[in-house]
Write a structure and sequence with these properties.
The chain has 259 residues and is of the alpha/beta class. Strands 6-7-8-3-9-10 form a 6-stranded mixed sheet, sandwiched between helices. The chain is globular. The N terminus is likely disordered. Bound molecules: adenosine-5'-triphosphate. This is ABC transporter.
Length: 259
């Protein structure tokens, strides 16, 4: 078994990969070359415990998107490594990485990315069908019930509100039973009341199903739904906050720079 070498004593350190869904170890990502080179991530070490809800926050340009892209295997680190469970993403070629994203990671984006010509039910099961897997009907029923869209399965996305569309996207992410759900500003396009309902749903999925969720956000209220907030500043890990409140997150952000 491969044990991530995170730093003992830090709250981001988790004993062994059986406890850890995802780990970034000393990840550095440099874009460009020579004088124009930018270190978007500069030696970031973060472990994500299984069954936890983690938010990543930081000022604009602090490296949040790069963090998420490296975690998802969409970007390859310049140095350091990313582990999904026991799998070192650097050991995989492009085809295997694509398969890993499809089979082991669920994605939720700000723009729901639903296919307009398909029904809700078809959108939810599309990734499984593309993977050549027959979706488990019992699990699909459970997921659509939990996210609250059981009565909308025959609708097209355009017939749903923004909040309902994001629930569909969350259901789509869950159907494949991913090891981790990566969410990029999942409430960025929603009004605050609907956004809070979606965040409560994400938290509930973590608390009741043991789903692991990692979410990038600009919003201290959104971050407060997580168990833990990891802060980035200038591409570096700038501390964490357990059991965050919106006020405590906002206070920390104020010290990190413009956001
Ligand atoms: N493809 C790229 N080429 C060159 N520089 C990049 C690239 N992607 C990101 N960067 C730079 O890396 C740094 C971190 O960018 P990143 O998008 O990860 O930050 P962020 O925290 O997500 O920002 P925001 O909150 O504004 O979306 C920035 O200085 C950015 O300009």
């Amino acid at each position: 078994m491969c044990v991530a070498r995170l730093v003992p004593g830090q709250s981001d350190w988790v004993e062994g990969t059986e406890m850890q869904a995802l780990a970034l170890e000393g990840v550095r990502k440099v874009y460009g070359k020579g004088d124009g080179a930018v270190a978007a991530l500069d030696g970031v070490t973060v472990g994500v415990r299984r069954g936890s809800f983690t938010a990543v926050m930081g000022p604009s340009g602090s490296g949040k998107s790069t963090f998420l892209h490296c975690a998802a295997g969409l970007d390859r680190p310049t140095a350091g490594r990313v582990l999904l469970g026991d799998t070192d993403l650097a050991s995989l070629g492009e085809t295997a990485l694509t398969r890993l994203r499809r089979d082991r990671i669920g994605f939720v984006f700000q723009a729901y990315n639903l296919l307009p010509s398909l029904t809700v039910g078809q959108n939810i099961t599309l990734p499984s069908r593309l993977a050549g897997v027959r979706p488990d009907a019992g699990w699909v029923r459970e997921v659509v019930g939990r996210v609250g869209i059981a009565d909308r399965l025959g609708h097209r996305p355009a017939q749903l509100s923004g909040g309902q569309q994001q629930r569909v996207a969350i259901a789509r992410a869950l159907v494949g039973k991913p090891e981790v759900v990566l969410a990029d500003e999942p409430t960025g396009a929603l009004d605050s009341r609907t956004g809070k309902q979606v965040l409560s749903l994400l938290r509930e999925l973590v608390d009741t199903l043991g789903q692991t969720v990692l979410m990038v956000t600009h919003d201290p209220v959104a971050a407060s739904y997580a168990h833990r907030v990891v802060f980035l500043a200038d591409g570096k890990h700038a501390g964490s906050l357990e059991q965050p409140t919106p006020a405590a997150v906002a206070e920390r952000m104020t010290h990190l720079g413009e956001w």
